[in-house]
């Protein structure tokens, strides 16, 4: 998608219509353009116009609550209504964008809003959005909804994706880099538009909580069932309590012995580690000592490295001097031969000249008069021309003096205003000097105050909780006493009813019911077996269906991966071809530039015909003239280089995207393969279960499943018949059951009272413990709060600041922030005004010099004009006395005809002479050049020899061992690779010794810390073997106690009368437990009430994908940095390749570095949001206001690299230094009364 044109009318502060055409100059060829203007002029309004025309939405109204504000008359408008962008005092507004859609066609989208009857006082009408094919007046959409859907289809992005892709959010990423841990997931969620993960996490938590409550309710119902008599229960409970008490005592002893055993084992491990570290250190030191001789040799080689340049220079000069001397000797011999031949030719020419001189004697006598006459003719013409030019120069100087005088007056007024402002600012700083340190350290102060304020809120909260808990403890103790009395009364009543029930039981036991129950149990078991078999069969069918789906999905992803590999192979070939083409054409361009470079062109321009070239000696110079064809060819080559470079960058970007997708599929395929294997294993496991349980049936026989249903129906009918007979027996027990119910009711009440009593007792203990913890927390928070406030005190000068902090900290914080911002604003204003003042004074002085120069030139021009007039009159008088009134041409024509005939005979001899002369001059030029070259090499040789000797002498004065020149040269002949290898080896040995020594110190520290740690056994009586024997004995005793306790608990679950009810509740509880386990696992993984847990996990994966795109963009911007995610965190770190791949915290980045990282993340998000579409337009609307000049240079270089990727970048800024570096601008110019207009420069 590419924006071609932006139009608007009456939008916010931009009055009237504006038109920004990206297909016309200067924006057509501008890869980077600035949107500049003063604050409030309407720079961001241009972005609002784009969003309105494309999505009927704009950033400045997104997320604003529906607060009403007054419109014209009695009408009101929502604060977040997009129509409020209509400028006050106008009746209609319009925003239009022409763009190339993803289908390759061009469209025009128009958003309009107007008032009723097209009057300023009319009511706002609903907005209108239409889409037109470019050049066609008929719209292809009608309503807003249809237009919005059509535009999303044409652009390939929705509104949120567009704002993340085209309107870069690097400021949000800068906030993300340094946000607190709990804020990172929310910021990343906002940036990437992945809010659904929070909803999923909260839903899982709510569902798990609901199922857990149902499970607790069922568990409570199970706990109310009692199967034994009261006497048996009391006996077993007492026995169980004794066993439990004994078990706890054994467990405490067991834990104490385990701690001592672990202490001894850890001591042995630490001693062993220490011995290993000592051995490692000894070995490393031994190896280092053995390499001492090589270390000395390396030091010597490094000490003589500074003489290598002198030695190389000496060798090169010697070689060149010999070759140039031989060439000079050969050239001088050739010149001698040529001079002998030229002497003979010169004698012939002299003879012919003597004959010509006889005919030209009289003409030469007349020649002085001819020359004087011609000189006077030319002088007359020149004098008149000079006189006219002097008159014009005088007039121009007088005009310039008037203009510069006006400029000087305006500049003097401006200097006075700037000096007055500078005095006011200095006075302000003097009055507020006591607040300087507070303003400069505002971030640190706010950090300490925020920490103290948070701690103060926590103190208040914990104090409130302490008071509430104390009140609850008092109430709980009162409830505990009341519950004890109720338990005693209920136990007495239960004993009376139990005696009466035993008498009734004797009469009921005479009825035979055992056979019916046995048969009923058999039918129940048979029914459960049939249900289990049916469930396994149905589960097998579902598992097989899931297996087929996973197989199909796996096959599809494998096909996608194979196709992607083919595309990657093709792209790599295309990249190699494009790289070869780009390298070739760039090399051709460099050769062409070299041939037309400024130095070569200047040297050629200095050549004269028949004069030998100082380089080649030739007197013929065919390339001296300028050739426009060469410039045209150079321009064509530069254009081809840019085209090939753009194509090569596009291929690299697409290849990176495909490689990221390839890695993603490579990660997905193993997961799908594992899911397939899990389904296969589950199918085989179910089949194996069916075969083990029912070996007489086939797993896949459909007829068997029908028979199972029939058998289940038969068993169910027989079971119902037995239940009817059992009901008959139950009716006979009516009286006994009535008594039993009353007894059970009392028993349940007793159990409930006992449980409530125990809970109240535990609650009292828990509340007392909580009170103690709260008291400790409150005291600790108060101490931390005082520490934070004491760190702030040195910066605060107001005596009541601490009281104000306690009374209303937000207002105090706002005042401090405002004061710091005002200090910073005044500082910037002072620096800017001082800079402008110096500039104005310099301009005033420079203009004053120019004005005085112009006035002096005016006087000189007037005198020159008078002088030129007198000279013209003098020339006219002298010319009248020469040649008797004849012209110079007539006289010269007569004498030239006489001399031409004699000259023709001389031409042949002269041509031969000139030819020999040219060859002689060529050889002389070459000889001169060779002598100069030899002298230069001789001087360089002497200098290199002297420097090498001086270096050797200086070295021998300080070195322990003396060196001769021969020894030095033999050492310098050693290959640098060998020196580098020895240096790396020595560094490696030093690192091994350092590492081994640090490891040994760490082991010694661990040993000392361990010996001081608690839990150390007595070395005399508590050896490892004795402790292990005690541990074994305690384990045997614990197993015996556990077995007894298990037998007691098993006895408590035997009660035949309540078996049916217990079984029913158990089945329901088991099903609910299985469901709870499934949801609990999911809840442990991703569930949370706030939604943060799954949001953090999902945003971690999202951040990984985003970083892969961001690093691609970062490599295009700068090769120095690489982004990495800190493991298991949403935090980032930066790998600095210039610092040996050091991992740097994002808090250590400078402003320019943070901007580059944030810009790379924003561009990565842009690529991530538009994976299927390439967006050619980018707009940056923040991030430049606090950057210095050096950082701005880094930013501009980064943006230039964006331009090379085929993107057109728009920068919205009011920073003058930045906008001055960008030639193409869209300027917002204020015209007064809150109005602005758009000017494209």
Automatic annotation (TrEMBL):
Assigned keywords, A-Z: Coiled coil
Statement: the UniProt record of this protein carries the keyword Coiled coil: yes
Pfam assignment, any one: AAA_23
Xref: InterPro entries: P-loop_NTPase (IPR027417), Rad50/SbcC_AAA (IPR038729)
Domain (Rad50/SbcC-type AAA): residue spans on this chain: 5-260
Coiled coil: 233-294, 321-352, 470-581, 634-661, 729-763, 899-954
UniProt feature, compositional bias: Polar residues: 1020-1029
GO biological process: double-strand break repair
GO molecular function: ATP hydrolysis activity
Disordered: region residues: 1005-1029
Keyword Coiled coil: yes
PANTHER family noted in UniProt: ABC TRANSPORTER ABCH.3
This protein's name: Rad50/SbcC-type AAA domain-containing protein
Organism: Odoribacter splanchnicus
């Amino acid at each position: 998608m590419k924006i071609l044109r932006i139009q608007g009318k009456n939008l916010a502060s931009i009055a009237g219509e504006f038109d920004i055409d990206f297909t016309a100059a200067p924006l057509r060829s501008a890869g980077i353009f600035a949107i500049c203007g003063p604050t409030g002029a309407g720079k961001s309004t241009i972005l609002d116009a784009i969003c309105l025309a494309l999505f009927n939405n704009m950033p400045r109204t997104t997320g604003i609550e529906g607060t009403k504000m007054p419109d014209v008359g009695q009408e009101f408008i929502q604060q977040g209504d997009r129509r409020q962008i209509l400028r006050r005092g106008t009746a209609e507004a319009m925003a239009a964008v022409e763009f190339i859609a993803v289908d390759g066609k061009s469209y025009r989208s128009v958003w309009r809003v107007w008032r009723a009857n097209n009057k300023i006082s009319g009511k706002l009408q609903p907005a209108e959005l239409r889409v037109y094919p470019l050049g066609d007046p008929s719209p292809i959409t009608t309503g807003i909804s249809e237009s919005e859907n059509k535009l999303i289809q044409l652009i390939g992005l929705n509104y949120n994706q567009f704002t993340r892709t085209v309107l870069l959010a690097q400021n949000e990423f800068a906030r993300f880099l340094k946000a607190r841990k709990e804020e990172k997931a929310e910021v990343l969620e906002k940036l990437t538009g992945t809010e659904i993960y929070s909803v999923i996490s909260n839903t899982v938590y709510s569902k798990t909580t609901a199922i857990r409550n149902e499970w607790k309710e069922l568990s409570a119902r199970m706990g109310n069932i009692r199967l034994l008599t009261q006497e048996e229960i009391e006996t077993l409970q007492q026995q169980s309590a004794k066993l439990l008490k004994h078990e706890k005592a054994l467990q405490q002893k067991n834990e104490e012995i385990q701690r001592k055993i672990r202490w001894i084992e850890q001591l042995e491990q630490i001693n062993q580690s220490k011995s290993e570290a000592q051995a490692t250190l000894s070995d490393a030191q031994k190896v280092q000592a053995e390499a001492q001789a090589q270390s000395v040799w390396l030091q010597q080689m490094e000490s003589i490295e500074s003489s290598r340049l002198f030695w190389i220079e000496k060798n090169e000069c010697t070689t060149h001097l010999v070759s140039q001397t031989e060439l000079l000797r050969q050239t001088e011999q050739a010149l001698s031969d040529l001079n002998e031949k030229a002497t003979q030719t010169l004698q012939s020419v002299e003879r012919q000249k003597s004959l010509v001189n006889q005919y030209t004697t009289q003409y030469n006598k007349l020649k002085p008069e001819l020359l004087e006459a011609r000189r006077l003719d030319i002088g007359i013409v020149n004098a008149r021309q000079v006189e006219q030019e002097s008159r014009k120069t005088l007039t121009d100087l007088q005009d310039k003096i008037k203009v510069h005088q006006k400029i000087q007056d305006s500049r003097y007024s401006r200097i006075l205003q700037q000096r007055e402002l500078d005095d006011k600012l200095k006075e302000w700083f003097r009055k507020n000097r006591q607040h300087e340190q507070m303003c400069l350290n505002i971030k640190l102060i706010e950090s300490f105050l925020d920490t103290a304020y948070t701690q103060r809120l926590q103190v208040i909260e914990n104090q409130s909780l302490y008071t509430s808990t104390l009140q609850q403890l008092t109430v709980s103790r009162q409830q505990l006493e009341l519950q004890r009395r109720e338990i005693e009364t209920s136990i007495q009543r239960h004993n009376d009813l139990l005696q009466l029930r035993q008498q009734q039981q004797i009469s009921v036991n005479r009825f035979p019911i055992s056979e019916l129950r046995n048969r009923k149990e058999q039918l129940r078991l048979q029914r459960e077996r049939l249900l289990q078999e049916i469930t396994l069969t149905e589960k097998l069918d579902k598992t097989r269906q899931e297996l087929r789906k996973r197989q199909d999905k796996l096959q599809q992803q494998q096909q996608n991966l194979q196709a992607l590999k083919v595309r990657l192979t093709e792209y790599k070939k295309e990249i190699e071809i494009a790289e070869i083409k780009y390298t070739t054409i760039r090399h051709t361009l460099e050769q062409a530039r070299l041939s037309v470079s400024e130095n070569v062109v200047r040297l050629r321009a200095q050549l004269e015909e028949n004069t030998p070239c100082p380089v080649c000696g030739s007197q013929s110079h065919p390339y001296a003239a300028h050739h426009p064809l060469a410039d045209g060819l150079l321009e064509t080559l530069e254009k081809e280089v840019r085209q090939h470079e753009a194509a090569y960058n596009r291929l690299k970007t697409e290849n990176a995207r495909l490689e990221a997708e390839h890695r993603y599929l490579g990660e997905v395929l193993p997961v799908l393969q594992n899911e397939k294997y899990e389904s296969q294993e589950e199918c085989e496991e179910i089949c194996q279960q069916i075969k083990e349980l029912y070996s007489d049936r086939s797993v896949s026989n459909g007829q068997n499943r029908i028979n199972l249903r029939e058998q289940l129906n038969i068993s169910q009918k027989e079971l119902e018949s037995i239940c009817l007979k059992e009901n008959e027996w139950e009716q006979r027990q009516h009286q006994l059951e009535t008594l039993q119910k009353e007894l059970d009711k009392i028993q349940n009440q007793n159990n409930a009272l006992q449980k409530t009593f125990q809970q109240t007792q535990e609650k009292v203990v828990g509340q007392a413990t909580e009170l103690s913890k709260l008291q400790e927390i409150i005291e600790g928070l108060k101490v931390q709060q005082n520490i934070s406030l004491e760190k702030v005190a040195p910066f605060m000068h107001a005596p009541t600041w601490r009281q104000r902090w306690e009374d209303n900290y937000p207002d105090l914080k706002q005042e401090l922030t405002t004061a710091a911002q005002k200090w910073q604003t005044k500082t910037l204003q002072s620096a800017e005004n001082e800079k402008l003042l110096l500039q104005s004074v310099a301009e005033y002085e420079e203009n004053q010099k120019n004005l005085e120069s112009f006035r002096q030139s005016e006087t000189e021009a007037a005198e020159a004009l008078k002088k030129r007039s007198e000279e013209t009159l003098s020339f006219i008088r002298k010319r009248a006395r020469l040649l008797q009134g004849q012209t110079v041409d007539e006289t010269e024509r007569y004498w030239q005809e006489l001399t031409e005939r004699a000259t023709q005979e001389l031409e042949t001899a002269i041509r031969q002479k000139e030819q020999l002369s040219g060859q002689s001059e060529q050889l002389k030029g070459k000889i001169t050049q060779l002598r100069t070259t030899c002298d230069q090499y001789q001087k360089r040789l002497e200098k290199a020899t002297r420097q090498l000797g001086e270096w050797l002498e200086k070295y021998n004065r300080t070195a322990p061992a003396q060196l001769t020149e021969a020894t030095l040269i033999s050492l310098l002949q050693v290959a640098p690779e060998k020196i580098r290898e020895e240096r790396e080896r020595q560094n490696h040995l030093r690192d091994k010794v350092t590492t081994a020594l640090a490891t040994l110190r760490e082991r010694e520290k661990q040993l000392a810390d361990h010996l001081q740690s608690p839990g150390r056994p007595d070395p005399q009586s508590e050896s490892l073997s004795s402790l292990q024997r005690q541990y074994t004995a305690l384990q045997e005793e614990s197993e015996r106690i556990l077995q007894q306790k298990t037998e007691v608990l098993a006895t408590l679950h035997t009660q035949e009368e309540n078996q049916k009810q217990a079984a029913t509740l158990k089945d329901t509880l088991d099903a609910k437990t299985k469901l709870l386990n499934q949801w609990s696992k999911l809840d442990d993984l991703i569930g949370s009430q706030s939604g943060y847990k799954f949001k953090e996990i999902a945003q971690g994966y999202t951040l990984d994908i985003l970083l892969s795109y961001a690093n691609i963009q970062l490599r295009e911007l700068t090769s120095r940095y690489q982004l990495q995610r800190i493991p298991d965190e949403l935090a980032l770190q930066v790998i600095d390749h210039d610092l040996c791949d050091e991992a740097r915290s994002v808090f250590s980045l400078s402003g320019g570095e943070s901007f580059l990282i944030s810009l790379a993340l924003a561009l990565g998000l842009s690529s991530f949001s538009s994976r299927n579409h390439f967006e050619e337009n980018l707009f940056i609307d923040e991030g430049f206001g606090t950057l210095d000049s050096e950082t701005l240079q880094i930013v501009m270089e980064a943006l230039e690299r964006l331009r090379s990727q085929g993107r057109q970048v728009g920068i919205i800024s009011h920073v003058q230094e930045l906008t001055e570096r960008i030639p193409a601008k869209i300027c917002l110019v204020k015209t007064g009364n809150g109005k602005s207009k758009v000017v494209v420069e």
